[in-house]
Amino acid sequence: MPKTSECDSAYNIPGFEEADEIREAFVELADQWHAETGHLSSTTQIAMHPAYQRIIGMGQEAVPLILNDLRAKGGHWYWALSAITDASPVPLSAAGNMRAVRDAWLDWGRQRGFLGR
User: With a cut of 70, which residues of the chain have pLDDT below it?
Assistant: First the structure.
């Protein structure tokens, strides 16, 4: 019987396949959402998109995926993050400043271990 390397055994961790499936589902939904809402200016239309709503339905497991997508591609992920986490890390002084809103959520994610430094 061939030896199993430590790397190979990592693929046998319970839940590994599930996490991979969640990531794949997220990427597919996020790509669809970005493509179909990138031209919209209505935050309500952006947040009510079916793919966005399905991502919210993924719950806490989607939070690091959302934050990584926000960091890489931007987008109006704030409604989803607030709905899933019940957090509101954006100071009132950042209202209307999308870069400050983005940075507040990314800082929040780093502080809670959802994102690397």
Answer: 1-17, 117
